[in-house]
Amino acid sequence: MAELLLKASDISYAGNSGNILDSVSFELYRGQITTIIGPNGAGKSTLTNIVNGLLQPQSGTIERMSHLRIGYLPQKVYVNTLMPLCVERLLQLTRRVSETEVDLALAQTEVTYLKHRQVQSLSEGELKRVLLARTTLGNPDLIVLDEPTAGVDVTGEVKMYELIGEFRSRLQCAVLMVSHDLHLVMSKTDQVLCLNRHLCCSGLPESVSQHPEYLALFGDQAAASLAIYTHQHDHVHDVAGHHHD
Amino acid sequence: MAELLNDFVIRSVIAGLLMISIAAPMGCLMVWQRLAFLSDTLGHAAVLGVGVGIWLQMHPMIGVLIIILVIVISLSRVSSFNNALSETALAITSHTGLAAGLILLGTMPGQRVNLESILFGDLLATTKTDLILIAITVIVLLFLLAQHWRSFVAVSVSREIAQAEGIEVRKVQFLMYLMIALLVAVMMKVMGVLLIAAVLVIPTSSARLVSRSPEQMVLISALFGAMSLGGGMLSSFHFDWQTGPAIVLSASCLLLVTLVLKRLSKGRH
């Protein structure tokens, strides 16, 4: 049995902006990819924030493995234009890491060429990749990704999920991510948490995709998503969105 | 060496340089965290602190430290995790503190407190005791900065990432507020509240224009701060201007020159 990293039991949270979670329980194991899906306002980000320790649940308990190291990619990062900061330094933000590790991380998300660029000058897609690379540094036990593919095109998305799978194998860590790309994440995920303020259903992707509550929430989208994949590509994008003919 | 300190010019230059060495990193942190206005607020509220100190028949510095600590602690309690201090709260505190301070000072007719010296201090009147006190404060603050630098920078970039990755954001933030309070309280007599606020923000803004890393910005701020100090003191001797305002103005001129040079070099590319 894989190592239990985090166990949430009956956690509830009500914020003043209407973000609500009602009695949610789940477990995160080393080496597993867990995906949170759910409609807007379902409490997905609230849940990741509780996992991260940014928010405290008002009831229920959350037990973390001692000294749990987390690597975190927020949904939106507001780039501070008042601070000069290059990509290399951003990667060393919270932990001291060697230059070799920095190079390896940047190479993995194919953004080595951004190493000495100022963070303010990056496009949204480039910043996403840099921040994704950052989460793998310092031997994290758990990588938390809040909508890692927002602002990335569809072919980039496929590569990104492949990468996340690679991180899991290389680092032997757990991954918890929020995603809207039902059709893409289902095949790469070990555990799905289908959230709509409460946990509608959870478990293996195959069992969740048959669940009546899942079908009620995503039935149409799940069918429509198949259509996206029928168009042919005559060129490739690398993860940073650059064309190669 | 000790005899050199008998010269008031030497004493004031050393005091100024010590101030610059701590104002550069602290000023950068304040600018990064959009706290530039906090130094202003604390400066204005410090007028009330001077009043309280005199009223309690203590050293004004102790009064200032008490008032500033009360303000910093209450402000950090009303600030939420995601928002740094609200501008409105800062503005209200600033005006209330100044008004209350002026009234309190006015009710003490026996005491002649010179408002101008509170605003701009008197660098040239730095005593040996002032110098020792400033040196100790600067050493303590530089030590704390060195210890927590990575956390301070991380919190400035993203509170969310910092917290998720094991930095206790609220503690780090509170420590920073305490350090700002200590800085303002100790430097006030020599530098005055307006000079402190200006030295924290103006050279830092110039440095932002020409630096490429957080640490580089701190070093360049220190350099610009020292140049402003030199320029201010020289013009103050030469034209018989007040030292404090002269330092502020030379910092502003330096910012203007940096801006123009930056524009020109951009235009050439």
What does this 3D model show about the protein?
The complex is a heterodimer of chains A (about 240) and B (about 270). Chain A is α/β, with parallel strands linked by helices. Chain A has a domain at about 1-65 and about 175-230: 3-Layer(aba) Sandwich (Rossmann fold), CATH 3.40.50. Chain A is about 30% helix and about 25% strand. Chain A is built from eight helices and eleven strands. Chain A has helices spanning about 45-50, 85-90, 100-110, 125-135, 155-170, 180-185, 205-210, 210-230, and strands spanning about 5-15, 20-30, 35, 60-65, 70-75, 140-145, 175-180, 190-195, 200-205, 235, 245. A six-stranded mixed beta sheet of chain A has the order 5-6-7-3-8-9, sandwiched between helices. A three-stranded antiparallel beta sheet of chain A has the order 2-1-4, with helices on one face. In chain A, helix 3 (about 100-110) crosses helix 4 (about 125-135). Chain A is globular and about 50 Å long. In chain A, about 40% of the residues are buried. With about 270 residues, chain B is mostly helical. Chain B is globular. In chain B, helix 1 (about 10-30) runs antiparallel to helix 8 (about 170-190), helix 2 (about 35-55) packs across helix 3 and helix 3 (about 60-80) runs antiparallel to helix 8. The model of chain B has no long low-confidence stretch (mean pLDDT about 85). The interface between A and B is medium-sized, with 25 and 26 residues.
Summarize the topology.
The complex is a heterodimer of chains A (245) and B (269).
Chain A: E1 4-14, E2 20-29, E3 33-37, H1 44-52, E4 59-64, E5 70-73, H2 87-91, H3 99-108, H4 124-135, E6 142-146, H5 154-171, E7 174-178, H6 182-185, E8 191-196, E9 198-203, H7 205-208, H8 212-228, E10 236-237, E11 243-244
Parallel strand pairs in A: 3-7, 3-8, 5-6, 6-7
Antiparallel strand pairs in A: 1-2, 1-4, 8-9, 10-11
Helix pairs in contact in A: 3-4
Chain B: H1 8-32, H2 36-55, H3 60-78, H4 87-106, H5 115-120, H6 128-157, H7 159-164, H8 169-191, H9 193-210, H10 214-239, H11 243-268
Helix pairs in contact in B: 1-6, 1-8, 1-9, 1-10, 2-3, 2-4, 2-8, 2-9, 3-8, 6-8, 8-9, 9-10, 9-11, 10-11
